[in-house]
Amino acid sequence: MTEAAIATTGKAIISVRGLTKNYPRQRVDAPGWAKLRNKLWGWTGRLDDWATLNEGLPVLRAVDLDVREGETLAIVGPSGAGKSTLLHLIGALDTPTSGTVLWRGQDVLRMGSVGLSRWRNQKVGYVFQFYHLFPDLTALENVLLPGMVAHSTAAWVAQGGALKARARDLLKQVGLADRSGHRPSQLSGGEQQRVAVARALLLEPELLLCDEPTGNLDQRTGETILDLLWQLKGKQTYVMVTHDMRLAARADRVVRMLDGRIEGEGLAPAGESGGAGPAP
Ligand SMILES: Nc1ncnc2c1ncn2[C@@H]1O[C@H](COP(=O)(O)OP(=O)(O)O)[C@@H](O)[C@H]1O
Ligand SMILES: [Mg+2]
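Above: query sequence and adenosine-5'-diphosphate SMILES. Below: predicted holo structure tokens.
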């Protein structure tokens, strides 16, 4: 990726370039002797190319995408198109086979492990289809978790009070002020997702990534989650992977994925489902 190409992205908060992800069809690991031989003189033996054996299943095929600062971007496409994989790579929850994800022009994979953890914790919020709350923590503790991770013990002593106040306020905003002491098992799916939304927004991330945030909820409950996400949106950038056409219809921009590629922009014309073919 050249400097000139980065410059043309202008106000892109995330730029994805040539992103490829292959999952191994079957994990075939080179035996120890082959690895050692490879280290010593670069030859592993008769079956030299273990990497080729692992090449496997292409799930993303050279995806390029710019996410503009402040926009709400919906990524739609049939199941198996690679939407979740792309979202996970944007959030650095997984590593690509090749290609780069740039955060304001900076390669996220070159931030170093401490820098990357801090970036994931403070700049990015995540909302998943199945909420991923900690079952042993109360709603309030779940919302507070990113704050606990972000601060050392000393800083927590100093700033914990303010964060607790913000967590309570967020729980109030998502309509769960009176449920803060309840554990996930005592909450409905829609309520758990509201807790997850509050948690994702605790540290006021610049980027919110949502993977099918309404995918596990009935229509009305899903609608209330969408209302909340839009009500709570400040200057953040939202990237949402979804099957839910109501969500896509609210987005500023829609990108369609098919078979590991970006197929086009905008909702597909009525009658076309986006060409739901077999999963790659
Ligand atoms: N860990 C994995 N190992 C192997 N294949 C995977 C893995 N995760 C996802 N896949 C495959 O990658 C493809 C895309 O998956 P995904 O990104 O979850 O699609 P989507 O979110 O669009 O439904 C699917 O064919 C899926 O089976
Ligand atoms: Mg998915």
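Residues 77 and 186 are 33 Å apart (CA to CA).
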